[in-house]
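Consider a typical record:
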Amino acid sequence: TWEDAPTPKHLDSFVPRDKAFIHQARDRANMSVCARIAVTLLVLSSAMLVAHGVTSVLTVWALLGCSAVLMAQLILPAVFWLKSCGPFRGSLGRGAATSIAVVAVLLDGVCTTLTIQRFNDPPCPATL
């Protein structure tokens, strides 16, 4: 099978070679109909609650901007690099990636807290 075939060394860090991981991923892809309905209802209900609770779409964009952007640009790349390349690099590289991830998580928490504190602000500020 392809799982037992030899692969070049540079592909080993990107292709899951563990048979248990591959089988577990296949099992997760086969969700039952009830599980799919439950996940869909959960996503739609949470979106409805957020839409009902905020006064402006600007608040939603601010929350997404402060949390999702920091996560996509700083946190996730550093964590993925630590997981895939970190064990093969020096302590300086691992320390730098870890410090970037930790500082980004702290900044994400501060930014999200400030955004949540402004949830009740009017949608359009008064002009002078």
